[in-house]
Each structure stands twice: as structure tokens, then as C-alpha cells.
Amino acid sequence: MQNAVDTNDFVELVRQAGLRPTRQRLSLARQLFMNGDRHVTAERLHSESLDQGISVSLATVYNTLHQFTNAGLLRELVVDAGRSYFDTNVSAHHHLYFEETGELRDVPGDNVAIENLPMLPHGMKVSRIDVIIRVKNGSAESS
Fold first, then answer.
1. In the chain, which stretches have pLDDT less than 50?
2. Which residues constitute the domain of residue 126?
3. Fewer CB within 10 A of the end CB, N or C, for the chain?
4. In terms of domains, do 76 and 115 share one?
5. What is the DSSP letter of 99?
6. What's the total number of domains in the chain?
């Protein structure tokens, strides 16, 4: 888990990402990075913002999450069509996805071996491999 970012560093974090440190971006950055690594949906972040008295539209939350992702501050994980999570841990790692609860947990990158990748088209290289291991409660199934 990464260390929580000092409150005074949010302006610099946003600036170093090449973004203007608006009030809304700073508020969202604080929510995302204040307490270390987390996985969050736009809807959850929006709800948390409203609960904390931060006036921000869902569209602004989506736009900011995508800006932070493009700047390398977040990783987007698409777990289903129309369902994305944003991960504050941008290091090389994979995930367990608990289908019943929608929870994501980090799996260290060296715990998963990737072998026999297909031949890539000329001039192309692998930029990242995302493995999402989907799990569900097996005790309810009959053998």
C-alpha cells in the first residue's frame, strides 16, 4: 500500500500531472489519495463527495477520473461492460474481483505468471497486462 499523500501535496500532485489545480480536482484528489490505495467507481466517489458537502456533478467526477488516469495517477479497470473501477495503485499488479460484492483486491504482479503471449504486430509492444481473477462463493454450488 502506498503512503497517504500529505494534504499540502495535492496541489503539487495535480500540477505535476499537467492539470490545473481546480477546487473540484483538489477535492477529488484528496478523497482518492488521502488514505492510501483504493479501488473506487465514479458513482461511489460522487456519493462520497456529496456526503462530505462537496458540490460536484457526476460528469465532473467522470471527467476528473479520466484526466487523472490519462495523467498516470490512476489505472482504470473495466470489470464488466459499463462498470469501471479506478485504482490509485498504478504499480504492476493484478486483481481479485468478488462477483457477489463488487469488491476488488490487489494481487501482487509476481503472483501471476503470464506465458506464451501471441505474436504482436510489427512495431507494437505490450504496454500493460491486466489480469482480473473473478471469484464467487463456491459453497452454494453442488458438486
1. 1-3, 142-143
2. 91-135
3. C
4. no
5. T
6. 2
